[in-house]
Amino acid sequence: MSSRFDCPACGGPLTLRAEGVSESLACPHCGAVLDAKDPRHQVLAKYRSKLGVTPKIPIGTRGTVRGDQLEVIGFQRRAVRYSGVIYSWDEYLLWNPYKGFRWMTESNGHWLLLKTVETKPKETPGG
Question: Cβ distance 104 to 112 under 8 Å?
């Protein structure tokens, strides 16, 4: 379920795509981070800088992945420094109201579909 409203900081149009389960929402127009749980969508913080990266799959895009209808509701670029080299990748947050969240990551043209583990893995003897 999604809802549309105007950003309280700049008036730009926004769509809350996973209403009821999202905790925050970022305004792409002004950089405000809004409280998705509050019906007034109060400003929690401001971005330090604009993202400056265009996602390969735009937010709001819907598609079928492994038989599940999913919608892109979030995007972030992540990076890690290892032995002095910076490795970066993109993460897309996918949503289906019946199946929950999935993550799809992309690095150098390689794509992975991930599901968050909901229980602690069991330890096996000798493993």
Answer: yes
66 and 110 housed in the same domain: yes
Residue 55: inside a domain, yes or no? Answer: no
| 94 belongs to a structural domain | yes
Q: 32 near 14, Cβ under 8 Å?
A: no
Say if residue 37 is in the same domain as residue 9: yes
pLDDT, one tens digit per residue, over 1-12 is: 678 899 998 999
For 12, the domain range is: 3-46
Instruction: Report pLDDT digits (tens) over 50-103.
Output: 556 788 998 889 999 999 999 998 888 999 999 999 999 999 999 999 988 999
Q: Are 65 and 51 in contact (CB under 8 A)?
A: no
C-alpha dihedral over 4, 14, 24, 65, to 10 degrees?
A: 80
